[in-house]
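Working notes for the structural subgroup meeting. M.R. asked for a predicted model of this chain before we commit to crystallization trials. I am recording the input and output together here so anyone reviewing the notebook later can reproduce the run.

Input as submitted:
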Amino acid sequence: MKIIDIMRVRAVIPVLVVEDPAYALPIAQALVEGGLWVIEVTLRTPAAGEVIQEMRKVPGAVVGAGTVVDRASLSVAVAAGAQFLVSPGLTEDLGKAALETGIPFLPGVATAGDLMRGLSLGLSEFKFFPAETSGGIPALKALAGPFNQVSFCPTGGITLATAPDWLAIDPVLCVGGSWIVPKGPPDLAAIGAAAYDASQLRKG
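Returned structure, recorded in token form:
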């Protein structure tokens, strides 16, 4: 799959911080059963690589690595078998290294310069991050104006209530949602319910 195909699977990609690998399998099962198949596991904990490996055991799950910030974290993601890569920002070195892996890559951008750097690398799909504190919807609309060939996944501060407003923007294909799986021991019933609610959102 290309990154644009992954972005189109569902309108919400859950963004997870999982500290205990024992939680990985049940969380992924709850998400998939709730209707969210694409899962981003952030590399913010020592267990992240193992979490990705465990989650990939769930049939139907497409599990990627987030918070890829340099070649070291890129290596962790690749070794864990991440099916896509997400970064909070974009440097030329990281962009080239990520593209060399052949794994679908969604780099973070917040400025026109970031976008131009990505376009120069041949990229056309981007994570707008951090979405709310970078100016929110007005900022993304202004940023997207001169770059009508690109698509976005805004992430950061978005909720179930605000996601439809973001999805109404033409170049936004999906949003990242950290509200679906809170940190700590998982409440699987709550995660499944939150996943179902998010899965009902549509681009439009």
